[in-house]
Structure formats: structure tokens, C-alpha cells
Design brief:
Layout: E1 2-4, H1 11-14, H2 16-25, E2 27-31, E3 38-43, E4 51-56, H3 60-63, H4 66-72, E5 77-82, H5 97-111, E6 116-123, H6 131-145, E7 151-156, H7 161-166, H8 175-191, E8 195-198, H9 218-225, H10 268-276, E9 294-297
Parallel strand pairs: 1-4, 3-9, 4-5, 5-6, 6-7, 7-8
Antiparallel strand pairs: 2-3
Helix pairs in contact: 2-4, 6-8
Length: 306
């Protein structure tokens, strides 16, 4: 099976010690965000877990932890690292961009460029972050990462209710802006040895040569893992999404980056409360098991085709 870590929070950036403890103890528990008394238990065993995927804005706490890197080396891995051109007024707690770029480069050296992707998303347009600004920024980053990843993912901001609440200044990116950026990004990505993959943006950019099949498809994961998978059919997270997203061990409202555009955090106060409730020794990312909890052992088996 595949373990996901990055749909709900940023485990590498804020919870790397917890992850190490879970890997060493060989299991993790996950509270269902919609039915909180339901808790799933996953074994963390390389004979059952075929791949661990990460999505982070800061891989450095993992890369700088030799014991954690040793534990992770027992598993196949796929990493998406988000690197955008926004300032502290948008991404208040994301490290300096050069530091994040160095992290992507280091991952590329360790795992190979097929196991690391760069996310430049979500894209929004403002008086400061104009179309020309994005074009310059995207090329500067692509040039820096050339040779260390073959994948560049983009998406345009979706104004979900929590985004509108936390980032009221944001507006929809117009079709004209999407096409102008998409066409240029395909060309820039190709120039630096990368395939541009729009995330949940339909087929709009396919005319320019973008790969619109999805950003974390089974094919992408197979290439990262170097094996073929026979994966049970799952419903997509949302109708626009073609990616395989299942088995996430994170928790919503727990990412300390507090980016204005975040889709996973409801509000900063909820994040602060949850981060206070984090115990690195707990099997759950946030909080502890409760008497009323019902723990279910998740059926697990390897999906690798021998």
C-alpha cells in the first residue's frame, strides 16, 4: 500500500520527530476528520508499505535528521516540495526560498530526479505578484532546480470558503492569465528538463504541451518507486483530481506555515491549539487516544507487481 503524509498538513516541516518515532515503533494511528471517534491504525513496515509520499514546504528537518533519513531509506519515497515566489505577508513561516531550493536539490541527489517534484502552486495574481513577476520567478527557480527534478506542478488558486475567509484579497485568475502563464511555463519547464503538470486544472493547458493527466498519478508514483503497482480503484478526492490520494496520516488544522491561501487550515487559532496538543510520542499526530475511540486495524498488503 501507499502511505500519504501531505494532504492535510506538513509533517516534514513540523512533525519530523513524531514521524521518526512512528517509523521506529512500526505503526501510526489516524483520526477520521469527519467521524472523530473512528481511528485507523496502519502498520509502518516496508514489506507492506510500498511507498511513502511527502508534500512539504520545508524538507530540511528531515534531511538534517540522520536517524530519520536512515529509517526512511528502508522505504521507497516520493516527494513534492512547494517553492513559490511569495513573501512573508503570504507565507509567514516558510523558510527562505534559497533554503527550500537547497532542500529540493539535496533530495534530488539522494533519491534521484524521478522521485522528487517541484510544486509552484497555488498561483494568484495581485498588484505585486503580476503575470510578468510569475514568469521571471518560475524561470529563476526552474533554472536553479534543473537536473534535480523532472516534474513541475502548477495550479491556480481556488477560492474555497476557508480561503476567502483567510485571504479576502484573493481573486480568481482569469482565463487569459491562465493561458498566458500556462503556455510560458510549459516552454520554461521544457527548457530545464521538466514536464509541466497542472493540478486539477482540466485540459486547458494540454494545447501547449502540458501533461494534464494529474500530478500524483499511479504512473508518477510507479516511476518514483521503480516498480509496477496493482492499486485498488479509489474515488478521486474531488472530481477535478486524477491523482491517487489515499491513506493519509496527517491531520487538518495543524500546519504552522499559516499561508494565506491554505486549503487545509480553517484559521490560525485552530492551528495553534492543535499544535499545542501535539505529542511526539503519541501514535496520533494531534492529541491522544480517548476512551470513546474505536480503533480499526486497516487491511494492508503490498501492491507491488512481482
Amino acid at each position: 500500500m501507499i502511505i500519504q503524509t501531505g494532504q492535510r498538513t506538513d509533517i516534514p516541516a513540523f512533525y519530523s520527530q513524531w514521524l521518526l518515532n512512528r517509523l521506529k515503533e512500526g505503526y501510526v494511528m489516524v483520526r477520521n476528520p469527519y467521524y472523530p471517534e473512528s481511528v485507523s491504525r496502519y502498520q509502518l513496515n516496508p514489506e507492506l508499505v510500498d511507498l511513502i509520499t511527502f508534500c512539504t514546504k520545508n524538507p530540511l528537518p528531515v534531511l538534517q535528521n540522520a536517524e530519520l533519513m536512515s529509517e526512511l531509506s528502508k522505504y521507497r519515497q516520493w516527494w513534492y516540495v512547494t517553492l513559490t515566489p511569495y513573501g512573508r505577508e503570504i507565507e509567514p513561516n516558510v523558510p527562505e526560498k534559497a533554503v527550500v531550493a537547497d532542500g529540493i536539490i539535496q533530495l534530488g541527489k539522494i533519491l534521484g530526479p524521478d522521485s522528487v517534484g517541484w510544486r509552484y502552486d497555488p498561483i494568484f495574481i495581485s498588484g505585486k505578484y503580476t503575470v510578468p513577476y510569475h514568469l521571471r520567478a518560475f524561470e529563476n527557480i526552474a533554472k536553479r532546480l534543473c537536473g534535480y527534478t523532472k516534474t513541475a506542478v502548477i495550479s491556480f488558486i481556488d477560492l474555497f470558503p476557508k480561503v476567502r475567509r483567510n485571504f479576502p484579497q484573493a481573486r480568481e485568475v482569469t482565463k487569459e492569465e491562465r493561458l498566458a502563464l500556462g503556455k510560458a511555463f510549459v516552454e520554461i519547464a521544457g527548457k530545464y528538463g521538466m514536464t509541466l503538470r497542472p493540478c486539477a486544472e482540466g485540459q486547458e493547458l494540454a494545447q501547449f504541451g502540458a501533461d494534464c493527466s494529474g500530478c500524483q498519478t499511479i504512473e508518477v508514483l510507479e516511476k518514483a518507486a521503480g516498480v509496477k503497482f496493482k492499486i485498488p480503484k479509489k474515488n478521486p478526492a474531488r472530481k477535478e483530481c486524477s491523482c491517487f490520494l489515499n491513506g493519509d496520516i496527517g491531520a487538518y488544522n495543524s500546519c504552522g506555515h499559516l499561508c494565506k491561501y491554505c486549503y487545509a487550515n480553517a484559521n490560525p487559532q485552530a492551528v495553534r491549539e492543535n499544535m499545542k496538543a501535539h505529542n511526539p510520542d503519541s501514535p496520533l499526530l494531534i492529541g491522544e487516544l480517548r476512551l470513546e475511540d474505536k480503533v480499526f486495524n486497516t487491511a494492508q498488503k503490498s501492491w507491488v507487481v512481482n
